[in-house]
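*** Query protein ***
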Amino acid sequence: MYYFDYAATTQMSKQALQAFIETAENDYGNSESLHDVGSNAREVLEKSRSFIAEYLGIPKEGLYFTSGGTEGNLLSVISLAKGARKKGKHVISSMAEHASVHAALRFLEQSGFEVTRIPFTKNGIVDLGALQSAIRPDTVLVSIQHINPEIGTIQPIREISQLVKPKGILFHSDCVQSFGKADVASMLPFVDSITVSSHKIHGPKGVGAVYIHPACVFNPVFPHLSHENGFRGGTVNVPGIAGFAAAVEEIKIGYQHQDLELRKLLKQAAGDAVHFIESDHDFQMPSIIGAMIPGVQGQLVMLECNKEGFAISTGSACQENHEGGSKAVEAMGYSKEATDQFFRISFGRYTTRKEVILLGKALKKIALDFCPVSGK
């Protein structure tokens, strides 16, 4: 099977797997236990925290480990909004956030908050004019993801920060798709909080982290918990965190040029059969490709590709009704019929030119078989 779903998850690297196994065998204690077995686990935990914090250039006191990106977004968005609710109860986000952010926003609405959801422009970028117009005196939090997981557009974090930070509005960014692929450290001065995940960078599943600037006031979703300084509950996954740190150690930012060449190669191989949904070069992560074959359901494209040995997706595996459709394409103003034609291809560390050419040819064949007009 040729794997083109790296935006969904990645296989564990050998280094991450080794760190995970060694820690599970040797440092299996509860990191909150006071005996030596627990202290040994605590030492591994804190070394991992320090290493990842140093990689990001942040104080380790603001880094909290979670069970992944979903929990990280849920806890950070809700905790930050609760911490600022004395100022107001208005939150701004985009229409195309990850499902976990939308879930957090719905929870806040049920708790008395108002939420404004901003659309995308035709280029897949959050509408800055609409965002500016949505800001109110009682706005306390803005949550905009760094890189969209469905179409790979890079959001203008600096410009958003310039709109909200002077007004004392907190700014959270879901960096699950950008961490390990783009320079997240350079954007940290412009945000108050980010979420990252291990399994997107060849680390273990079930591990992630949230960074909240230590100067920010937040109220934990569940009070009186002991783990992670009260940010979350549950025994900390020390082996997974050790594997996460090992995966971070292997990060090499610089695949963009290679991914851009693969993207161009796919376009050439697919010809006019595939419509690519993308932004301008400076606002596009080349490894994530949102696409359509006009007249063909995205789910059908995915199933036909699977028959031919290619693993692609129809969007984020975490979204509601994820068998088809795309929040990002909907936010750009596409019709429901068009959103149902959406599918996603994503490259990774092990993607080859040969695989990309074969996939492009397969997509062209699918277009010819199911929609002869688009497959010309």
